[in-house]
Amino acid sequence: xxxxxxxxxxxxxxxxxxxxxxxxxxxxxxxxxxxxxxxxxxxxxxxxxxxxxxxxxxxxxxxxxxxxxxxxxxxxxxxxxxxxxxxxxxxxxxxxxxxxxxxxxxxxxxxxxxxxxxxxxxxxxxxxxxxxxxxxxxxxxxxxxxxxxxxxxxxxxxxxxxxxxxxxxxxxxxxxxxxxxxxxxxxxxxxxxxxxxxxxxxxxxxxxxxxxxxxxxxxxxxxxxxxxxxxxxxxxxxxxxxxxxxxxxxxxxxxxxxxxxxxxxxxxxxxxxxxxxxxxxxxxxxxxxxxxxxxxxxxxxxxxxxxxxxxxxxxxxxxxxxxxxxxxxx
Length: 330
Hints:
With about 325 residues, the protein is of the alpha/beta class. It has ten helices and 14 strands. It has helices at about 15-25, 45-50, 65-75, 95-105, 175-180, 195-205, 230-245, 250-270, 275-295, 315-320, and strands at about 5-10, 30-35, 55-60, 80-85, 90, 110-115, 130-135, 140, 145, 150, 160, 170-175, 205-220, 310.
């Protein structure tokens, strides 16, 4: 089984300096690639000088996360590709448990390791924790992280289970399935595109797994921090894209109407908190969604079977009204 570790880079020399050593040290059974999104710093020279064994793929411009990977992966030949953020520290033996899962079941298309916080290594990391799920309205959450509540890793998720979505920070996928479902949706640019990809993979009847036996540490926020209005814009808009693309039209319209109302509540909250940039980011997200709605509707791929591992509850009510802050409370 040929494995490729593929890192997307844009002006990330400092991150490469900090995190590449662990990747090189503990990934001897994989070939390592860096896809460069037309960086303007010294990233390429740094790689050529210090890591001549790493294969460099240079994109013509900054395509963002989705198109950046889609373009770069055309030049990668492997059975399994790992889309690895440049701000991830890996650990010894991190690939082997994932490889065993793929070998165990050919219907397993995607695998995610345990994601811990690089800055607070006793706790899970926001972007994926111990595997992702969706509620009935398309709100994403994780075992170990619901909204802004992040759990300490006490071994409560030391298992290997099927999940709904895997973190884009460390995303192992069979290359032929990535190609079969059309890769990442380039209209997303960045954020939640991995959820859309996982949803499409599940609609094809494949499985997505999490394993605790592989552990990595994610810095997070290296591209866009949680306080960046652009991240707010992308998350709100792309979450609506997910609902429209992956539900029947009737279900999509119903869920989107409810989401637009709840987004309005979130906007009012930002307004009262005097976070005006985020308030306007939600408004722009909605107008951008309307603009692309017909295009997204034409991309719909739905499963004839009920999608398992989607939580039927409304996580926003469970969290804010019923005060259930942990996955185990649900």
